[in-house]
Design goal:
The structure is a single chain. About 35% of the residues lie in helices and about 20% in strands. The longest helix has 18 residues, at about 35-50. The protein starts with a helix and ends with a helix. α1 (about 1-10) crosses α4 (about 120-135), α2 (about 10-20) packs antiparallel against α4 and α12 (about 375-385) runs antiparallel to α14 (about 435-450). With about 450 residues, the chain is α+β, with helices and mostly antiparallel strands. The relative contact order is 0.19. The chain has helices at about 1-10, 10-20, 35-50, 120-135, 160-165, 165-170, 225-230, 255-260, 270-275, 290-295, 335-350, 375-385, 400-410, 435-450, and strands at about 55-60, 65-70, 80-85, 105, 110, 145-150, 175, 190-195, 195-205, 210, 295-305, 315, 320-330, 355-360, 365, 390-395, 415, 430-435. It folds into two domains: about 1-195 and about 365-450, Zn peptidases (Aminopeptidase), CATH 3.40.630; about 200-250 and about 295-360, Alpha-Beta Plaits (2-Layer Sandwich). It binds ligand BES and manganese (II) ion (2 copies). Ligand BES binds near residues 153, 180, 181, 194 and 395.
Length: about 450
Amino acid sequence: MLFLEYIESKKNEHLEELKEFLRIPSVSTKSENKADIERAAKWVAEKLRAAGMENVEIVPTGGHPMVFGEWLKAPDKPTVLLYGHYDVQPAEPLELWTSPAFEPAVRNGNLFGRGTADDKGQVHIHMKAIEALMKSEGKLPVNIKVMIEGEEETGSTNLWNFVEKFRDRLKADALIVSDTSMLAPGVPSVTYGLRGLNYYQIEITGGAQDMHSGVFGGAVPNPLTILCELFAKLHDKNGRVAIPGFYDKVAKVSKAERKALNGLPWKLKDFKKTVGAAGLCGEKGFTVVEQIWIRPTMELNGIWGGYIGEGAKTVIPAKAYAKFSTRLVPDQAPEKIAKLVEKHIRKLLPKTVSCKFEVLSMGKPWVAPYTHPFFEAAHSALEKGFGKRAVFIREGGSIPFVTQMYDTFKVPCILLGFGLPDENAHAPDEHILLENYFGGIKAVAQFYKELASV
Ligand code: BES
Ligand code: MN
Ligand code: MN
């Protein structure tokens, strides 16, 4: 196979080019990185053009731009839509990185840097697979549309509009995404389920201003204490979310599926090692795999207020804040859950404080059958690329576009993950195993080839 030789011969160039991509700090949540976001979008557009994609465009949205391109010269062959994101999570806390987040470095067979696994490395895998096919065969085996967005990490809030507006251009026989993980090293995986995500922020106000804790303390509400009391009440002793109605619409997962998921070559020992905590906790009655893949949760993501500087300050803060989120599973409806959460929080809070409640983003869960012949092509390509049979898994993370695409077009969504659960996505020292990056390029090129004969 010529394209495999091409990929093998370009390893160094591919790696150097990926590093270039990783050096752009395209953090979508921070306004100070707006110029970097634009730079990353341009970079992607340029490389897509160089790979031979046509009609490559940087399309403005209400937020960060979308990069779109296509190659539609394979009549009678399937058309697939490739989706990924060029934005990344903030790199903080910077001091915890072994090498700087935006100065990619190779150590022990891994490439370190923000975005290596999530998702620049995985986007690059596809860009290079497409380029390899184009350069070695002069054409692509199937029709490919590419859409790489810049605000996945902030909840893809402008995506709905985009999908509505460009419905025709996005139409395809399948969606292909590489923004997930393999079950374990050497175990190629296809993900057929993701949790949804609602993200919330609250601001609790007590007094009209900060107060001297000696002069006022004892008689006035302390929003920080009240916030702590509030969150202490949101789980019960069995690890369940203590919000009335929260579990009402949770779809029952069949015995057969639970058995299959629990029988995967997934090791609790490895999970515990990655976590590194003294112990695990979670909803009673479910295995860890079930807790992270098929059960909904509520997590406190950040809490602040009052004095956190050096030394002591005797103050009763006027305000306290929290960021928190709920992971959702089929068939929980994000709007409904947001209402339940707000209602319950307002009910729990004492009358002595006021509360501003915001929903920052909402996203539906996704799960779908993997019976379409495209999945067989994926399975076979992964096996060829990694020398091992692929497994079908669900995962706990969220990718809003997958649900939107599935709901809009009901097409098969094929999620080929090349990250690993312990690669520190969203955390310091994020990395990708180079073996998976290089293997991924070959497997993906193989996959596009196999799609042509479905
Ligand atoms: N790539 C992840 C999603 C993911 C991670 C799926 C691991 C499966 C396994 C994506 O970039 C992400 O982080 N999504 C956010 C959701 C978003 C709405 C902020 C997430 O899951 O927190
Ligand atoms: Mn991602
Ligand atoms: Mn992410």
